[in-house]
Design goal:
Layout: E1 23-34, H1 37-45, H2 53-66, H3 68-71, E2 80-90, E3 95-106, H4 111-129, E4 137-147, E5 154-155
Antiparallel strand pairs: 1-3, 1-4, 2-3, 4-5
């Protein structure tokens, strides 16, 4: 397999996508942040001192997707056509499950943008709740599905 992010001298390069055709691209990523039951209850009731945890995390996750190219050195700046982030409060596992859907029409995929959206949303939840719970754990950030592009579709088989 050819490694596309290295030049002839073995140094990092940004892949040239100018010869690729635009196509619809979509990626879904998921992750979770586990916390104490009392912390989850405070999030659910809207009683965290810093404000609306999930509302702020929603906006932060969207911003995370939009600025992925500024964080990951070889990512291209993309015009994203849609971003949606959903939260599921799972009281049986004491966690907030995070799911991000990112879409574009372009020459490269949006997997990294979806993963970044989940990571930044989780980090924001951690930041907003750390005053009451420093034992939180961010885990299982993973690509669930992607559509479009030369490599076609992908769906995670390991859950």
């Amino acid at each position: 397999m050819e490694l596309t992010h290295f030049n002839k001298d073995g140094r990092a390069r940004m892949v040239d996508v100018s010869v690729k055709a635009d196509s619809e691209r979509e990626a879904i990523a998921e992750g979770r942040i586990t916390m104490r039951p009392e912390t989850l209850d405070l999030v659910k009731q809207g009683l965290i001192g810093k404000g609306d945890v999930l509302g702020v995390a929603q906006v932060a996750g969207i911003l995370g997707a939009k600025t992925t190219w500024q964080l990951i050195p070889m990512c291209h700046p993309l015009i994203l056509t849609g971003i949606n982030i959903e939260f599921d409060l799972d009281e049986s596992a004491n966690c907030v499950n995070i799911r991000a859907l990112v879409k574009t029409i372009g020459r490269t995929g949006v997997e990294m943008e979806a993963l970044s959206a989940v990571a930044v949303a989780a980090l924001t939840i951690y930041d907003m709740c750390k005053a009451v719970d420093k034992d939180m754990v961010i885990a299982y950030i993973q690509l669930v599905q992607k559509k479009g592009g030369k490599s076609g579709s992908y769906e995670r088989s390991i859950k």
